[in-house]
């Protein structure tokens, strides 16, 4: 093992949240170490892959408000790194017109004056060809939404962190965390001491938190990331302004089905089911359940007639979910110099910049920029004694 090294802060987990947190800390002149258990870049967690959707289409106002600043921070990173990270495509939201969630999303967009267009069954196909709007469904397009280039974004923020003097150590698994006024982090390759530690380890969060006497009600699921071939090349292409889309619920499922235009692989459209089966993050390849793919096949056949209803490529991703599907952004209930960010994967990539800023503020003991009550650990304590 290498000799002890001291830092102002150690961030554990170099996914999108950890990388943006480290970047923000470095901007605040903090000597920061970013630790990652795998060799970077890797595909074992939740932040890999070429694309993610960026949107304000939520049923809660606080997410819309946070996305305002997140868009600004994404643009700032684009300028600093000199690389394009976002492409505006619009987001098509479809769902049963009288359903609670669809109505909430539509009302939240309107209330927050987010640019949007409401489509009807009469004009839908003029604006959105090659998609079948189910009878009884409504449709709106959030105009400013689009595609984030995920791999490119992760590389950019890590590079900017290093330009600011930050240190990245990959291929180092954390073996132990000893809390105290100075936290000691032992890895497979070294021992580090820091005034503050931020844990953003995704599916491995509880494994690390066990060293601090804390467990959170987190569930890890494996998502099959599916790509579907166009029958006519270009029909769903991003260059023809085909939008990202979310089907809030359907005759196939009450869970969201979401997709992005043909972009990553020529002639292939990414369409995924917004949940999966429980998985061990270290044994995820043993999880072979295809029930989500079966649901997607029925949906593609019914709603996307221009796609072959059999996935041409299937990749995988891990979601780490809280019971209420909101994030965890909080200080450890016992050790205030240990900050926890968890439950991001599933819908958190787009919030990477603002979550990094908030975790940085918590770590430095500053008043957070937003009301974090929806994201505090104590929300679980009222519902489950097993949360802590």
Automatic annotation (TrEMBL):
<keyword id="KW-0560">Oxidoreductase</keyword>
<dbReference type="InterPro" id="IPR036188">
    <property type="entry name" value="FAD/NAD-bd_sf"/>
</dbReference>
<protein>
    <recommendedName>
        <fullName>Peroxisomal sarcosine oxidase</fullName>
        <ecNumber>1.5.3.1</ecNumber>
        <ecNumber>1.5.3.7</ecNumber>
    </recommendedName>
</protein>
<feature type="domain" description="FAD dependent oxidoreductase">
    <location>
        <begin position="8"/>
        <end position="362"/>
    </location>
</feature>
<comment type="similarity">
    <text>Belongs to the MSOX/MTOX family.</text>
</comment>
<dbReference type="InterPro" id="IPR045170">
    <property type="entry name" value="MTOX"/>
</dbReference>
<dbReference type="GO" id="GO:0033514">
    <property type="term" value="P:L-lysine catabolic process to acetyl-CoA via L-pipecolate"/>
</dbReference>
<dbReference type="InterPro" id="IPR006076">
    <property type="entry name" value="FAD-dep_OxRdtase"/>
</dbReference>
<keyword id="KW-0285">Flavoprotein</keyword>
<comment type="function">
    <text>Metabolizes sarcosine, L-pipecolic acid and L-proline.</text>
</comment>
<dbReference type="GO" id="GO:0050660">
    <property type="term" value="F:flavin adenine dinucleotide binding"/>
</dbReference>
<dbReference type="GO" id="GO:0008115">
    <property type="term" value="F:sarcosine oxidase activity"/>
</dbReference>
<keyword id="KW-0274">FAD</keyword>
<dbReference type="GO" id="GO:0005777">
    <property type="term" value="C:peroxisome"/>
</dbReference>
<dbReference type="Pfam" id="PF01266">
    <property type="entry name" value="DAO"/>
</dbReference>
<dbReference type="GO" id="GO:0050031">
    <property type="term" value="F:L-pipecolate oxidase activity"/>
</dbReference>
